[in-house]
Amino acid sequence: MRTYRLKMNLQYFSQEKTEKATPQKRQDSRNKGQVARSAEIPSAFMMIGVFLFMSFLGGWIIEGLQTMIRSNFVYITNWTLTEQNVDLMLKDNVWQAAVIAAPLMGISLVMGVIANYMQVGFLVSTDPLQAKLERINPLKGAKRIFSARTLVELLKSLIKITFISAVTFTVLWNKREEVMLISQKSIGDAISLVGSLIVQTGLAVGILLLFLALLDYVYQKYDFEKNIRMSKQDIKDEYKKSEGDPLIKSKIKEKQRALGMNRMIAEIPSADVVITNPTHFAVALKYDPNEMDKPTVVAKGMDYVALKIKEKAKEHDIITTENVQLARALYHQVEIGDGVPEDLFKAVAEILAYVYSIKGYPGGGN
């Protein structure tokens, strides 16, 4: 019973999401469009950009509106009210309004792009656009409506409305004397005052929203990091997926070593001599002066592999000679298929000369 409980506890803790997300997990989330971002930052940037533009070029906007209104009055007094004239006037008004609104829309677009790029960089993901049945699941929809995140969003909205109302009231209260006298001003001065109040209020609210948006971004970052946490089992599964199952990898390496050793052993019959130390190391050399510049190692091994090399050499009547220092040097310094280094030429030449004298010919090869 205790063993069962211990096993269940270990399984529970292995599934508990307590670990920071790995780079692979972060990249997968990013590919799905899941990133830490605040929707309030683009709104704040757009508001500040639009009202800054209006503060510098508000006169041009007002002049454009006045021109449009003035031209309408002129057209109405001079034109006959027909369907064609009304259509022409509306098209002209739409065009003039578009010219006036285009800079504001352009500023909004640029500021929105900048704000999003500052948060998440360049990101294009189609995953949020894909149709998923779980999004229309009533049960999951109800859970989202009554979740803690929804309550947090509601609280944020209430705080935002409260602060925006307070800032708007403060700006208007500071200008209350001018507002009270607006009825005594000319139409141009009244419009100028109203425009100034709108720009001041908009900038103040924009700066406030930017401050609240930065706080919201900190919260979104924290919430995002919490949501992408991984359990210890998740990390193990990810490692297996990316690197491969360790058991399978070891089997593959074992097969590769076996194939490599088989190919190496198959080359031993063409060797001229096997040099041993005598038990731990064995190195098989081949030399054909017509094809090679220097003797070449065709097989080498230690312990069990060395034993197999010596058995194969004995099977094919390959001469085996003992030279502890040379066997060790060849094993550690020369890879299979490489030639003998110059500093070992003399020792190897002496052994080959000995082998050739036994075989009864002065040249190399079989």
TrEMBL record:
State where it is primarily located: membrane
What are the boundaries of the signal sequence?
A: none
Q: In which organism is this protein found? A: Guptibacillus hwajinpoensis
Keyword Oxidoreductase attributed: no
Which BP terms in the Gene Ontology apply to this protein?
Answer: bacterial-type flagellum assembly; protein secretion
Q: What is this protein called?
A: Flagellar biosynthetic protein FlhB
Spell out the NCBIfam families in the cross-references.
Answer: flhB
Any matching Pfam family:
Bac_export_2
The root-end lineage is: Bacteria, Bacillati, Bacillota, Bacilli, Bacillales
InterPro entries in alphabetical order? FlhB (IPR006136), T3SS_substrate_exporter (IPR006135), T3SS_substrate_exporter_C (IPR029025)
Q: What does this protein do?
A: Required for formation of the rod structure in the basal body of the flagellar apparatus. Together with FliI and FliH, may constitute the export apparatus of flagellin.
Could you say which protein family the record assigns here?
Answer: Belongs to the type III secretion exporter family.
